[in-house]
Amino acid sequence: MTNDATRVIGEMFAYLERDEEMALAWVESLRRRGDASKHRAVAFRCRKGCSMLEVYPTPRGVIVYRPRYRLSPTRNAEQSSAEGRAANTEDGDRRWKAHAGFLPTEWEGWTMPLACDHAELSISADAISTAVADGKRAVICE
Question: Which of 26, 32, 76, 138 yields a CA-CA distance of 20 to 30 A from 7?
Answer without folding.
Answer: 26
